[in-house]
Write the structure tokens for this entry.
Amino acid sequence: MATCRGIDVSAYQGTQNWAALKADGIAFAFAKASEGQKGRDARFSTHIKGIKAAGLVPGAYHFAWPNQDPKLEAANYIAAVKAHAGKGFTHWLDLERYSDGRNYRGKSASQIKSWVQTWLSAVQTAFPGQRVGVYTSADDLKNGHVPAGTPLWYPAYPWGAAAYSKAEAAARPKPAGWAPMIWQFTSQPVDRSICYMSAADLRAWAGGTSSKPTPAPSGKPKYEPFPGAAWFKDGRKSPIVAAMHDRLVAVGCNHYKSSRNKDVIGSGDKASYEAWQRKCGYSGAAAKWPPGKASWDKLHIPNV
């Protein structure tokens, strides 16, 4: 699988030689912009200007306090990055619990998920056409804090200090059944990550010109663009149906009694897809069969 290399920085890191980092093979870099309702990272402007000037795929992140107001936190982040964000810019919610739990205190798993949805939606609305994802741990994923279909940047450090080549040779992590888009594999000497796309594919994805940054798994049906609601008729037979079946099973929306004839639309597809639409936050008539384009596109990005 093709990969590319990146780092992330905050006020804890001094000025970087971004041109030299790019020459060494770095393809993307993210910088902390904000935290909570009012916090701003003192070095964000310097970092992000350097990242963009070097021609790296840029991104910013916000450290979340899910026991505060998500709209105020989103507004803080939006104000921090709006002068720098544009086509090809990526946005990330840093969702991680402080060791003493002070930023999660008093909130249930469902409340945290709702908080995350509100923050993501506000940032997506502020920056239409730009990518918005979540950086979070296996525990947060297991506890259901992240909406299905959200681009995932995942931290896990199996070795301590490690070279990029070691992460590239390792198996892709599968936390709580997710396949991360980006794996932050060490924090020594700086936060290092690999993205499971080539540099060109990541740039295309960040720029909104690709909704499917990696090829479909070998031997599985290829995803196709949304064919329209009228296409989903009882008995319809197509490799697209089989691809939908595989994805629904992968995201835990498995209401199939049998996998026979999985390329033919039946009652299992309807029940499973309705479960997926509910997982995406839809309810009532909006969650009913047939699929809609928004949920279809979320289902078929590679990190769900």
